[in-house]
Amino acid sequence: MAQDNRFRSAIWRGVMGLGIGMLFTLPTLLLAFISAGGGHGDYLWAKAFFPYVMCCLIMADTAGIEMNPWLVTLAFVQFPVYGVLIGVFASTLKKAVAVAAIIGIVHAAVAALCLSITSKYFS
Known about the structure:
This protein is mainly alpha-helical.
């Protein structure tokens, strides 16, 4: 019975994390879109908020591959996935902070990599 309650609690925390992640998605997408400037911007916020997508786009551009619509989907689900991961593993505050720190460190490292790569399309 206790394990069943922990499972339900983890699901509830995951759903809450999903909701919180969804709240972050729209403003970050808007800032990324604005920084892209209709293709004439610097893409700073796009690279900072969505480094996985931007790195994939830069690598695809280098390889001569067309943009894949799945990458746009990745941008929409990135922050909700972060929220779910933090929520599910957040049985204690200490665990929640640890998971958030790991996600933040990986995100920052990929963003730094993405910002350091140059491309003819993404300045």
